[in-house]
Input
Amino acid sequence: MKNEIILTIGWVAAIQGVLGAAGQIFGDDPWGLLHLWWNIPVGGYLAIFLVGAAIAFMGETTRRRERG
Output
């Protein structure tokens, strides 16, 4: 159960990072939910994506290792 929560948090963070960066690069405003609470620059969104992707990757490998 714990690994599934970590995996979900990683995927959500990665998606929000991509949406925020893509919105600022290709549009006028960032997309996603994070811009509603914080003013994050493009580099911050890319960092959020990288951290989220790393957490999701770690969760996926842990889940596959547990399955055998």
Remarks:
- The chain has one domain: 2-67.
- The CA atoms of residues 22 and 28 lie 10 Å apart.
